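Appendix B, record 7
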Amino acid sequence: MIMKVEVEVVSRELIRPSSPTPDHLHRYQLSFLDQISPPVFSPLVIFYSSSEADTNFDIADISNRLKKSLSDVLVQFYPLAGRANDNMFIDCNDKGIPFLETRVKCQLSDVIQNPVPSELNKLVPFQLDEVADLALGVQLSVFDCGGVAIGACISHKIADALSFFMFIKTWAATARKHHYHRTDDHTVMSPQFVSATLFPPRNISGFNPRVGITKENIVTKRFVFDASKIDSLKSKYGVNDNDHEHEQSLESYQRPPSRVEALSAFIWSRYVAATKVGSEAPERVYAIVHAVNLRTRFDPPLPECSFGNLYRIAVTVPRLDTGEECYGLVRQVREQVSHIDKDYVKKLQEGSEHLSFIRKSSENFYKGEMVTLSFTSLCRFPLYEADFGWGKPTWVGSPALTFNNLVVFIDTKSGGGIEAYINMKEGDLAKIESDKEFISFVSSE
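Structure tokens (predicted):
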């Protein structure tokens, strides 16, 4: 039986920057990549259990500390406290961000022992597909047991995942600094707002950034794959085929699949196997899509603290005639990802060619000619380092998203496993769950 979470809002306020944004910074220009990013909120919920060692939660102190540190960190991240104007710029007017405090009528353990992603949506401050002019919102949820959760939503129109986590990391470090009265915390990073300089805004008429956003018949389920199962998949999807028709370095061929490469190949192949049977449209093309961080693709690379939407996607249309196990899938994906290089970045900065490509892609999506399964990995992000002054997280979770055919990977807290959140049409997800091979690799926790 699904655990229903009851949440009561007890306070709501706006948190403004602790010092005003200078006049010359009042207009934050969105970049071309911001403009074409989906108008949704990216959410995260971070749980802290009061039953863990060395924790003694004073809820009033936690609330005040969060608000004070948030006010201070918004001075650095000033666009987040502003208001969006159409799809062109942020008016950095210091109007502030919504901060909700809620009471949750259950134990924290009730939520995290068998997490239901759709119930986690009650622990964030916004409906994810209702982006208006706000860039950020925070919700502090207090459980009956005294444990707490920090739910945050950031607009994808202004930030990608790396920018979001940089903000969380900086906010946590600022809160720690207040708590321990430190002045030497070197984990505080200042964001560099360079995206509109690198990718000037363009006229994107004819392109709909809402492609793929839907809540209709979409369900989200979380599947845990432990390290031993992922190791088996890494062996199974080793880059061991002999098709060298595409020139690549020997190192690229010999490098074993990463955890993310192997698990995404497995989930994609089981998705195709489960949904292609009896398909009414056999001419459909199946594609695997990976989000790729552009910062490391520049020459020279951009610093990690570069803020904005600095990612693109690698689209692979695998050949389905390479055998049931799809041994060549990882190599084919690597080949597409390798095309996102410094030359790709230069073309992207020119803009027009890429805009034509994404317009065509969105047309194919709407016609149903291309079936995509998209993967975004939050693995190796230091999510479990988010210590605001009362210890590290007990668990970090993702609410249900408003995209069809999107898989999000998050590291397990320990042990090298991966939690996969699969957002998909209910019927398709049911087919995958009845796939014996898929289920054989899922951990029972």
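Remarks on this record: The chain is about 30% helix and 20% strand. The chain has a mean pLDDT of 88.
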